Amino acid sequence: MKHYEVEILDAKTKDKLCFLDKVEPNATIGEIKSMFHKSHPQWYPARQSIRLDPKGKSLKDEDVLQHLPVGTTATFYFRDLGAQISWVTVFLTEYTGPLVIYLMFYFRVPFIYASKYDFTTSKHWVVHLACMCHSFHYVKRLLETLFVHRFSHGTMPLRNIFKNCTYYWGFAAWMAYYINHPLYTPPIYGEQQIRLALIIFLFCQIGNFSIHIALRNLRPPGSKTRKIPYPTKNPFTWIFLLVSCPNYTYELGSWLGFTLMTQCLPVAFFTLVGFVQMTVWAKGKHRSYLKEFRDYPPLRSPILPFIL
Amino acid sequence: MASSEEDGTVEEKENNNKKRTKSALVTAWLTFYNIAMTAGWLVLAITMMRFYIQRGTHKGLYRSIARTLKFFQTFALVEVRLTFVGIVKTSVIVNGVQVCSRIFMVWFVTNSIRQIQNEESVILFLVVWTVMEISRYSYYTFSLLHHLPYFIKWARYNFFIVLYPLGVAGELLTIYAALPFVRRSGMYSMRLPNKYNVSFDYYYCLIIVMLSYIPLFPQLYLHMLRQRRRVLHGEVIVEKDE
Fold first, then answer.
1. Chain A / chain B CB contacts < 8 angstroms
2. Domain locations in chain A?
3. If contacts are CB pairs under 8 Å, which of residues 256-275 in chain A contact chain B?
4. CB distance A262–B199 less than 8 Å?
5. A8 neighbors A76 (Cβ within 8 angstroms)
6. Rounded (5°) CA angle B228-B230-B231
């Protein structure tokens, strides 16, 4: 069996960083990254970007050496992606924050509202309902992160955790402050409005969960394959006929429900910002589906049926 | 085949012509825009000088130029669109922040809070803005006409060194002077309880705006210094060959 030689150069300075000889032809990029890590312990595999061209795209961990367009002496270029943190860690941190913060406002922990309100509870039952819904939502997200989602990337840049946590925690505090405020005004249309809002919220929570399960089942455990999602027996997944990213559609619906339930402008604002971000993600996903699959159903829109 | 080749080149020429006419149109429009803005700020400068010479005081000066100022400063929003689309090669964020802070000062501070319109700090930033905008827009105009006198380039990239901090001082002092009036009148503010379940205190908003100058101003200033080094002293490229 002919062995390969692999040299790894810095993509910017072109310095020779590492030379590996006697590399198996069927070695993967992932294995090469581990070998590179041994000679440079500060660059763990997750922060290595290995490419064929200094300005080219990163090679995937699964790519096999002998299937790449290289000679028996392969030259790769390395770029440091910076400190990385696992997606699971980021998700757990960014979702635990809102859960805890909202409860602090709900129980009117001291120094938030005037001291005469410390540890009191709101007299409006919609406030209790809102707390249950909000907490349920984030507990669901935490459990999904631990048991449902299958991530295609293991890590993301470390600075993302600060950005993401500021967003989630900041908005949670802002919303929770007003909903649990002693001077909170319940919805104008009272019980009817709250009931409708709750139905929308629960419907969309179940829908969102159904989509997550359907997406999980598309992908065998430990794999990173991508397939076109299709409606299953679960009626909540039938929205796949019209939308590429129904998880975002349902998420928008949940927050619209919550906005209606609490009649709180900061919640509406949070819904709007989230919608903008999810639309950007949905459009990107939709585009990559179209690029990857020739037979992608033409009726589907990225996030809103027929509209967006 | 010869004929299709010809067709190909004719099409290409047509496309090139279209591109050229489009960019000629854009350039013409940009030149017109910059001439108009230079003229506008010149009018402001002359009006201000005439007022001061005739009256000997700055009291009432703001009122006399308020409408013209609002018009030309607001029109600068066009520039944000231009940088965003890529027609003008400035950073969208830098330009956006600058225009936003100007619009904020003009519409939400000096326009709305009558009591501070005669403050000296207002005159300070008005003078600074006028000098900076005249040198900036005339720089753009002459650049587009490919006939840039050196002193205009010099002015545009040197005046800011002193004027930027002076302008910031004028703006901050004005906002600071406005604070007691805002607090007393409760303007632009919303208190609980209300049916939207939100509150907004313009007083604290202004304080936050003032604090935001601390991170933002150095960045804008350094950006201009870097531009200055590049334009006036040419780019310095460091090769790592030695």
1. 30
2. 2-81, 86-290
3. 262-266
4. no
5. yes
6. 65
pTM: 0.79
**CA A91 → CA A149, A152, A176, A296, B147, distances in Å?**
11, 14, 20, 30, 57
- The C-alpha of B78 sits at a distance from chain A's nearest C-alpha, in angstroms, of 24
Give dist(CA B37, CA B75) in Å, integer.
9
* A171 or A297, which is more confident: A171
Residue B127 has pLDDT above 50, yes or no: yes
Q: Which of A199, A299, A306 is nearest to A249 (CA)?
A: A306
Put simply, whether B196 touches A (Cβ < 8 Å) is yes
Q: Which tokens sit at A80? A: 């440091």
Q: What is the ipTM of this complex?
A: 0.77
B192 touches chain A (CB under 8 A): yes
- Residues of B within 8 A of A184 (CB-CB) are 192-193, 197
What are A169's strand-pairing partners?
Answer: none
Q: Which class is A2-81 in CATH?
A: alpha beta
Of A175 and A155, the structure prediction assigns the larger pLDDT to: A175
Residue B139: closest CA among B130, B131, B148 = B148
Given a cut of 80, whether residue A223 has pLDDT beyond it is no
Number of H helices, E strands in chain B: 7, 0
The residues of B that are catalytic are 164, 171
**Under 8 Å CB-to-CB from A234, ≥6 apart: which residues?**
A210, A213, A214
Q: Hey, is the C-beta of A114 within 8 angstroms of any chain B C-beta?
A: no
Residues of B in contact with A183 (CB under 8 A): 192-193
Task: Please give the mean pLDDT across all residues of chain A.
Answer: 91
Q: Are A252 and A242 in contact (CB under 8 A)?
A: no
| Alpha-carbon gap, residue A280 to A289, rounded angstroms | 14
Of chain A, the end-to-end C-alpha distance in Å amounts to 54
Q: What is the pLDDT of residue A219?
A: 78
| Contacts B197 to A, Cβ<8 Å | 178-179, 181, 184-185, 262-266
At A78-102, the pLDDT tens digits run: 999 888 898 899 999 999 999 999 9
Q: Own/partner pairs for B46-50, CB < 8 Å, 24+ apart?
A: B48/B126, B48/B127, B48/B130
With beta carbons less than 8 A apart as the criterion, state whether B106 and B74 touch.
Answer: yes
Query: Can you tell me which residue has the tokens 């002919």?
Result: A2
Question: Which 109-128 residues of chain B touch chain A by CB within 8 A?
Answer: none
Nearest CA in chain B to A178: B197
Out of A217-226, B153-162, B189-198, least confident range: A217-226
Q: Do B105 and B119 form a contact (C-beta atoms < 8 A)?
A: no
**Residue from B216, B43, B65, B232 nearest B155 by CA:** B232
Work out the average pLDDT over A112-131: 93
Model pLDDT for residues B204-234, shown as the tens digit of each residue: 999 999 999 999 999 999 999 998 988 887 7
Average pLDDT over residues A112-132: 93
